[in-house]
Write a structure and sequence with these properties.
This protein is an alpha+beta fold and about 725 residues long. Helices cover about 30% and strands about 25% of the residues. Helix 4 (about 205-215) crosses helix 5 (about 240-255), helix 7 (about 310-320) runs parallel beside helix 8 and helix 8 (about 350-370) packs across helix 9. The structure holds dioxothiomolybdenum(VI) ion. Dioxothiomolybdenum(VI) ion (MOS) binds near residues 203 and 235.
């Protein structure tokens, strides 16, 4: 299929306003009589609030002060479970938990005031680690600290151990990771006769609307949510904006004035969500010729103090935990538990980077045990068309993962380097290594999720050559507006410039679901394509003068042949998977412990590349974040508090630390994705961590089972080996 617009690098819709500085981020917005708002937060992990005093030389009468008693509706951030309050009333369950809100016109005075609110507590015992939470000696949530459990069962795992030539066990863990969007979280709220209006940085306007309806006891038409230009999100603006919008709105209601709340970097890092820390145990039965007989996986994640999205993150991590491999006997047990840390939440990949890291490290370990090269061992087990995943989803795409893997390895010169590096390494303190990971990522909501979302999109034509796309999908730097305009223009036979994409505003756009889960281009893009085809058929006979604008609205319908059993966790977990092999070449300096990534190949099969520059950018950005998770980004906790909450000591990779990332695509069009496209937003986050750690093992023979690997970790292991 030949396209005019799709597959070309049209200019980004919002590029002009971003490069000229006219794009309006929430902090650029100033409304008449606007106040600023700040949050007074818990300083302890768990306990009862005993006394609050307002001290210091502060003109307290000038301040608007809000506490839990000012909430007109329900004091819960409405999401999945109603366990998280907007403001703690009597008990706190994590450091940084919001207790009070203050508003004043003078930002600087406001900050001084915040420091002069003193809260006395009666502390309760707290839990900080996964294992401690699982042991449930101290119960901090529910009856046993468990937010959610899943089990996947396929075949007869227990019968296989006695038949195995090898049984390989491993335990792998990952730390928290901060999303580090350039623009911190921020919101402005106004209250009037028409209800509450929110403007802010966010991924999911309709999540914010739903949460505020519960908080204020208002109907949908009285809660209007408008997305401002958004400077990155990566999952970090998926659920947290519902909290911040509620806070700004509570202050606006009490003060009768617009209230702006924008976090600074330290507050954003300390108080908002991060990637869930995880632990994965693998026990695998393998035949003498290196075929997977049985896989047993235990996957656990630390959800922090409230459930937020932990159950859903756990679900995705669980389903991805056995990767793109064929195995007839599988048991996965997973659990998300509570600790007294700020809630962990959505971050690009949503559980899959954690469980796929464990799997792809474990695959190298099995290969070594069995005595096969890592690529040969994987090749013997990769899914073929007609095989089924851990949940029994039959792979229908005509994919050839063995060929995909070889192509990536050939591009980086894998085999030649595996032979050459050991020879060169013997003469140098700087040891080179090469490693890779082969993986997949399911796009769209899991299981029946897309059916429940019932996403809607609307196209509106004011003239035959002027069409607007109305969806709730947010532009946060990833290119939503550009690709949706390409898709609509393509299907309508219009130029790119003739298609406008409306800014998400709940008063104007239909609910097309949240901008998450790699679903925008694939799922919502397909709805835009369908609406555009329908509109194209109607346009020639539409009389604009007599009838006004032509509107076409379409709603998601599940593709045929999809079956998902939520009780047994069996069936078609995702409409489609994107597949990839990522390979990394590293140098480990055995004197300083530093690891440098020198070369990186990212090859993926994505259905259809809608925009080559944006798609490449998505992959490069994800790889950079993955390298960050592998080698740099370590959240240091002290009793539930992130103590390195500044960019000077939570170190992310800069351009100097990132190699030339060589991005390659393969395209096997997926019939239910827009113009054949599958999701690619999260995929690139899954592969870099295991690829880099596998390369480190190849360089120095040390098998790290935890990410990130910092120079001090390398030095400690090298020192231990010297002693041993
Ligand atoms: Mo997300 S991590 O925005 O699905």
């Amino acid at each position: 299929m030949e396209y005019r617009l799709v597959g070309t690098a049209v200019p980004r819709k919002e590029a002009g306003r971003k490069v000229s500085g006219t794009a309006e981020y929430v902090d650029d917005v100033r409304l008449p009589e606007m106040l600023h708002g700040v949050t007074v937060r818990s300083t302890i992990p768990r306990g009862h609030i005993r006394k609050i005093s307002f001290d210091g030389a502060i003109p307290w009468h000038e301040f608007v002060i809000v506490d839990a008693r000012d909430i007109p509706g329900k004091n819960v951030v409405s999401l999945i479970y109603d366990d998280q309050p907007y403001l703690a009333a009597e008990r706190v369950n994590h450091p940084q938990e919001p207790i009070l809100l203050l508003a004043h016109a003078d930002k600087h005075l406001l900050e001084r005031a915040r420091q002069n609110v003193h809260i006395e507590y009666e502390p309760l015992p707290a839990v900080f680690h996964l294992e401690e939470a699982l042991a449930a000696e101290t119960v901090i949530w529910g009856e046993d600290n468990v937010f959610k459990r899943y089990t996947i069962e396929k075949g007869e795992v227990d019968a296989m151990w006695s038949e195995a030539a090898f049984i390989v066990e491993g335990e792998y863990s990952t730390g928290a990771q901060e999303q580090l969007y350039i623009e911190p979280n921020g919101m402005i709220a106004t209250f009037g006769a028409e209800g509450v209006t929110i403007r802010g940085s966010m991924q999911c306007p309709f999540y914010v609307q739903k949460a505020l309806m519960a908080l204020f006891g208002l109907p949908a038409e009285k809660v209007r949510v408008i997305q401002q230009e958004t400077g990155g999100a990566f999952g970090g603006k998926e659920e947290y904006p519902s909290m911040l919008a509620g806070h700004a709105a509570l202050l606006a209601l009490k003060s009768g004035k617009p209230v702006k709340m924008v976090y600074d970097r330290e507050e954003d890092m300390a108080a908002t969500t991060k990637r869930h820390p995880s632990k994965t145990r693998h026990r695998t039965a393998v035949t003498s010729d290196g075929r997977l007989l049985a896989m047993e996986v235990e996957f656990s994640i630390d959800g922090g103090a409230y459930a937020t999205l932990s159950g859903v993150v756990l679900s995705r991590g669980t389903i991805h935990s056995c990767g793109p491999y064929r195995c007839d006997n599988v048991r996965v047990r997973s659990v998300a538990v509570a600790t007294n840390a700020p809630p962990h939440g959505a971050f690009r990949g949503f559980g899959a980077p954690q469980s796929l890291f464990a799997l792809e490290r474990h695959m190298d370990k099995i290969a070594r045990t069995v005595g096969l090269e890592p690529d040969e061992f994987r090749a013997r087990n990769l899914l073929r068309t007609g095989d089924s995943t851990a949940t029994g989803q039959v792979i229908k795409d005509p994919i050839d993962l063995v060929r995909l893997q070889s192509r990536a390895l050939d591009s980086i010169g894998y085999h030649e380097k595996r032979r050459r590096f050991p020879v060169e390494n013997a003469r140098s303190r700087r040891k080179k290594g090469i490693g890779f990971a082969t993986f997949f990522h399911g796009a769209g909501f899991t299981g029946s999720g897309e059916r429940f979302l019932q996403s809607v999109v609307t196209l509106e034509a004011r003239a035959a050559n002027r069409v607007r796309v109305l969806t709730s999908m947010t532009e946060m730097g990833q290119g939503t507006n550009t690709v949706l305009a390409q898709i609509a223009g393509e299907a309508l036979g219009l130029c790119y410039e003739q298609v406008e994409v409306t800014n998400p505003d709940t008063a104007e756009v239909p609910n097309s679901g949240p901008t998450v889960a790699s679903r925008t281009a694939m799922v919502v893009g397909k709805l835009v394509e369908n609406a555009a085809r329908e509109m194209k058929a109607k346009l020639p006979s539409h009389d604009f003068a007599a009838l006004g604008p032509l509107r076409v609205t379409v709603q998601y319908k599940e593709p045929p042949g999809i079956f998902w059993d939520d009780a047994l966790y069996r069936g078609e977990a995702y409409g489609a998977f994107s597949y990839a092999t990522y390979a990394a070449e590293v140098t480990v300096d055995t004197l300083t412990g530093e690891v440098e990534v020198n070369d990186f190949v990212a090859l993926q099969e994505v259905g259809r590349v809608l925009h080559p520059v944006l798609a490449t950018g998505q992959i490069e950005g994800g790889v950079a974040q993955g390298i960050g998770m592998a080698l740099y980004e370590k959240v240091v906790w002290r009793d539930g508090v992130m103590v390195n909450n500044q960019m000077t000591n939570y170190v992310m990779p800069t351009s100097a630390d990132i190699p030339n990332i060589r991005v390659y695509f393969e395209e096997i069009p997926y019939e239910h994705g827009a113009m054949g496209a599958k999701g690619i937003g999260e995929l690139p986050m899954d592969g870099p961590v295991p690829a880099v750690l596998n390369a480190i093992e190849n360089a120095i023979g040390i098998d790290f089972d935890h990410a990130p690997v910092l120079p001090e970790d390398v030095l400690a292991k090298l020192a231990k080996r010297r002693v041993a």
